[in-house]
# Entry
Amino acid sequence: MLLPEVIKISVQSGQTILKYRIHWHVLFTHFPISFFGLSCGLMLLYLDGGKPCYEFIAYLCLAAGVLMLAASMLSGWFTWKARYKGLRGKIFIRKIRISLVMLAVSVVVLIWRAAFPATLQTVWLRLYFGGIVFLLAGAAAEGYYGGRLNHR
Amino acid sequence: MRHDDLKDMIEILSLAAARQEAEEHFFRRSADASTSKVAKALFTEIADDLLAYRGKLEKRKQRMLDALADLELERRGASR
# Structure
């Protein structure tokens, strides 16, 4: 039944155009989890006796992650308002709360590292590392809830 | 059905309706952009099917919202 229809379509004149859209939020959300994951891995290497450059690259990754986190939050807000009409469901409330906490923690951790790079002693360094691990966990939670919007 | 379960179901239905709406819009956009008459007709037909299905979901959601309102009324009555 389907085959004649397909053939019929193929011999028709005119163009078939599929109008896809760019889903900015889906695009942006991949970056924070990648950057925070990389930052976390590099910090682990540094804490395991690695070179100081690992810590510096981890810091740069953290900064990039924070930047992309802000972009993800902004695009997420617009997607929530436009596509889901600001539906105040459990998933959205959790996602918004997690992202706000992540933003606060990331800014504190970033400023801390930028302001006191030389004073990162063992305890503070571990706290800083804990902050990065928290951000990675937060990004993973955001991904989990984001996935539940489209997959069961 | 428990109060929270009902709320969860309403949320799931709302998300499903939003997904259907996005799909419907995609087919309408594609129908508008296509110059092939067959493609236009096919995409419009699919978009109409999706719209009809979304209508069913919305009706079901409304029934659940009514049930939730009844349940909440019952709860308030019991707590007095």
Q: What stands out?
A: The CA atoms of residues 2 and 71 of chain B lie 9 Å apart. The mean pLDDT of chain B is 93. Helices of chain B lie at 3-33, 37-79. Residues 37-79 of chain B form the longest helix (43 residues).
